């Protein structure tokens, strides 16, 4: 099973340069780069970005550059476009991985052990399309979510025929993608027929339960990341 690591990071973000801001004196994207490099099963390392600074920094950690078209690096760009562009680029180099480890450039909370566990899960069952880390979070259970309609809060779901408890402990457990990495079979990316919004994960997605994670979207996230890294 040939595995390739692909770091994805764009420079066009609300928080300027969020992928290369420093956490404990290291750029955010260095954490996924360094942890992936510890996994012997991975044979190739690439980075996709439209930003020269990101490409240059990632290359210092041994990631070969894929210059992403700017049309795939906008605020409303979709990850599937980045992935398919990278797969097409790799094919021209005669590199055709069975599995792609997609690393997120703004996600410093990552352990190589999580990647190894995910690889072992994928190896044991050919029916699995992908393995992704998830966080259990009933505080933000979908049953508790609201939308604003005509200036008032309304439920997202129709509960007229269902009794929904207000206590989170009584709700069915809810899990959220941690978004530090996705381990995906390449054929599943190309089929892109899984559940939305991450349909490129395929139809058989296995969870890897982790306890803590944070994506960098705001300055405060940098401080949260420092605290989580201390307890990993």
The CATH homologous superfamily of the largest domain: Spore Coat Polysaccharide Biosynthesis Protein SpsA, Chain A
Radius of gyration: 19 Å
N- and C-termini, Cα separation: 29 Å
Q: What structural class do you assign from the helix and strand content?
A: alpha/beta
What fold name stands as the CATH topology of the largest domain? Spore Coat Polysaccharide Biosynthesis Protein SpsA, Chain A
How many individual helices? 6
> Based on CA inertia axes, which overall geometry fits?
globular
Identify low-pLDDT runs.
Answer: none
Strand content: 15-25%
How does this structure look, described?
- The chain has 232 residues and is α/β, with parallel strands linked by helices.
- The protein is built from six helices and twelve strands.
- It has helices at residues 30-36, 52-60, 79-92, 112-124, 186-191, 219-231; strands at residues 3-8, 22-23, 26-27, 42-49, 64-67, 99-104, 130-136, 146-149, 152-155, 175-177, 181-185, 205-209.
- The protein starts with a strand and ends with a helix.
């Amino acid at each position: 099973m040939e595995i390739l690591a692909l770091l994805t990071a764009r420079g066009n973000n609300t928080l300027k340069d969020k992928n290369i801001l420093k956490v404990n004196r290291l750029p955010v994207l260095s954490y996924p780069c360094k942890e992936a490099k510890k996994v012997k099963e991975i044979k190739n390392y690439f980075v996709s970005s439209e930003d020269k600074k990101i490409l240059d920094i990632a290359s210092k950690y041994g990631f070969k550059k894929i210059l992403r078209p700017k049309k795939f690096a906008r605020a409303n760009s979709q990850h599937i476009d980045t992935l398919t562009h990278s797969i097409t680029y790799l094919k021209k180099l005669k590199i055709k991985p069975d599995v792609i480890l997609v690393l997120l450039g703004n996600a410093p909370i990552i352990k190589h052990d999580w990647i190894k566990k995910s690889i072992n899960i994928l190896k044991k069952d050919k029916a699995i399309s992908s393995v992704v880390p998830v966080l259990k979070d009933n505080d933000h259970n979908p049953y508790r979510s609201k939308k604003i309609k005509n200036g008032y809060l309304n439920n997202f779901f129709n509960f007229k025929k269902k009794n929904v408890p207000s206590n989170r402990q009584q709700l069915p457990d809810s899990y959220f993608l941690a978004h530090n990495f996705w381990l995906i079979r390449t054929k599943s990316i190309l089929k892109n027929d899984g559940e939305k919004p991450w349909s490129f994960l395929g139809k058989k997605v296995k969870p890897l339960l982790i306890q803590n994670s944070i994506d960098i979207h705001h300055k405060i996230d940098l401080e949260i990341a420092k605290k989580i890294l201390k307890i990993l």
